[in-house]
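Give me the fold.
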Amino acid sequence: MMTSADLLAMADQLCPMYALVDGNGRLRGVGPTLKKLRPDFEWEGRRFFRVFDLLRPRWVRSMDDLLQTAGSKLHLQFRDSPHTSLKGVLVPLPDGEGALINLSFGISVLEAVRDYDLTSADFSPTDLTIEMLYLVEAKSAAMEASRQLNLRLQGAMIAAEEQAFTDTLTGLKNRRAMDHILGRLIGAGADFALMHVDLDFFKEVNDTLGHAAGDAVLQNVAKVMVECTRQTDTVARVGGDEFVMLFEGVREPKILETLATRLITQLEEPVPYGGRLCKVSASAGTTLSVWNTVPFEAAEILHQADVALYAAKRAGRSRHCFYEQGMEKDEQLATP
């Protein structure tokens, strides 16, 4: 004849989340997983209805009522915190000795695994919960792999976009980036200044010392321009020895004149290369955004800066000029 110890040992293997209740409604034993949920409990001898709150069927009020639910689904929760939800099925024991109630977490199994640090050993080997947990773990691993892949793709996209907007020799913005930023400033109706800078005597450096020396000069020019401007300003190389600087929020001629003077002075300092000194200078032309009833285009403001630049060159180079109305006529007269 099977003893209570044999019954409990068998239940431990088959359904480790069980409660064994005697005919008076007192707990005779519980499975190892149930013990893990309340490790400080003295389970044996406690009344079943003092430990669990039976939510459904609602008509159950006593042990006799509970025995009538054999084969039906029970909905329970712990009376104390955390009020973990459970589901169960009752099987009466022979000779009215009580019942064995096989419990499970139902759809709240993921929360229970998290709250109680459960593992696969806490469930029956044939329980579909194990497979579900494996699937959840696999899904989590797949989602993490997908997240990492998305991050790498996003990083590659950002790098590609950055490369598309960067001059590879100097590290400055390129013409494409400048056009984009200029269009944004015009579209937003922002106040800004645009300075067009062209190097003087750069061709002589390339012709006499070679293109490597010319590259060294361009890199030094980029360094000087970045040091002379704010982080919020845009410095772009738009041609071989041509640069454009955009100063958002700046329209004061005095500030721009001071910056241009400092820039031209620093660019006149010789650049050592291969035991020789590379000497260049710079001319600059600046125009200010003008907001009136007639909207202006990017091509217009670039043309104005270009006109001012060549006015500076005609005035003797190593100079800076602001664009003024009527400069185009002077340029036409100066053109042979």
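The chain has a mean pLDDT of 85.
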